[in-house]
Flagellar protein (Vreelandella nigrificans), 151 residues
Amino acid sequence: MSVATSSPQSTSIDALGSSSDALIGMAVLGKTAAALALVIAIILLCTAALKRWQSARHHHGAHLRIVGNTAVGSRERIVVVEIEDTWLVLGVSGGRITKLHERAAPNERSATPPAPEPPIRFSQRLAQALTSQHKKRNSETPQPSDSNKTP
């Protein structure tokens, strides 16, 4: 008889046990999510701090300035660099930098480099192309004259 009476009690105990396992699983999942969020927050803070530190470091006592550059090939460039009162013409390739020429910097240079022209947006270029095409069509087609109209 004791076997028959223990059966209903064991199902209720099993139900309580499975819910506690679910609660433990949720607690572990919550702790894991909190740890992941903490790691991501630390990475973002470190990235922001490094960006700020590097930008501040480059502005203090920068004696090196790039005057100009141009691409020569797919991975090769010619770069003009100003160091104090000297301009260096450098050839820069994949794993190598070669000094091509050295000269004194010109005296009549401006303190600030000229601002580059802002790039033309696609919408502006499209509008220009459409208006020029419209003008071209209007100039090519002769206007029909209406004899019924009086001037």
